[in-house]
Write a structure and sequence with these properties.
The structure is a single chain. 8% of the residues lie in helices and 43% in strands. The chain is built from one helix and 14 strands; from the N terminus they run αββββββββββββββ. The strands form four sheets. Strands 1, 2, 3, 4, 5, 6, 7 and 8 form an eight-stranded antiparallel beta sheet that branches. It has a two-stranded antiparallel ribbon with strand order 9-10. A two-stranded antiparallel ribbon has the order 11-14. The chain is mainly β and 194 residues long. Strand 9 and strand 10 form a beta hairpin.
């Protein structure tokens, strides 16, 4: 009786382990979509956004820039800022005058472009409120080990307002901003802080 039980377990194991099949994900065939990213800064600078077309997942070339868009930023304080495409960097649009995003003000980005080249302009809009600046009491860097690798934990101390927020970190190392492009920025939720 015990030998039949062992054979039955072996057959069951073979049957269960053979219930897998490969999944073919189509990463190259999807239609391109417009990709718009930008970041408002609290300093009086020429604010920039980048408009590109998505590319296949395994494509090694950069996304194709999207040109000839009409781009503007309107503030809840009734200010309007036009953006123009840079001549030497297609797909990058910059405010024609320096501007600083002000805490508590909402900014609406509007992009009009014939992305699908059908002769009709598509309109893309997004809005955000510039958050208030929080004063930090102190910052501390502590070495730590995670799964055998040495890392450094950046610990910041201060009082944060309640509610869900996201933080974007940019680091300055030896007077140079690391992760200068928005695609390289690191954002984190404050769920662990709340």
């Amino acid at each position: 009786l015990s030998i039949y039980f062992i054979i039955l377990l072996c057959l069951l194991g073979i049957t269960v382990s053979s219930c897998t099949s490969p999944i073919d994900l189509k990463t190259n065939d999807s239609d391109p979509v417009i990709v718009i990213y930008g970041c408002l800064d609290g300093q009086a600078i020429h604010q920039s956004i980048r408009i590109t077309s998505s590319s296949p997942y395994f494509e090694e070339k950069q996304n194709r820039p999207v040109s000839d868009a009409m781009v503007s930023i309107r503030s809840s304080a009734n200010e309007m800022f036009e953006l123009e495409e840079l001549i030497n960097e297609k797909g990058t649009y910059q405010t024609t005058v320096p501007m600083a995003a002000v805490a508590g003000i909402t900014y609406q980005l509007k992009v009009e472009v014939d992305f699908d080249e059908d002769g009709v302009l598509e309109v893309y809009e997004a809005s955000t409120m510039m958050p208030y600046h929080y004063e930090l009491d102190s910052i501390k860097i502590e070495p730590t080990s995670i799964m055998g690798y040495k890392h450094y934990a950046l610990k910041m101390y201060g009082v944060e307002e309640p509610g869900e927020d996201y933080y974007l970190f940019r680091f300055i190392v030896n007077d140079t901003i690391e992760r200068f492009k928005i695609s390289q920025f690191m954002t984190v939720s404050d769920k662990g802080i709340n």
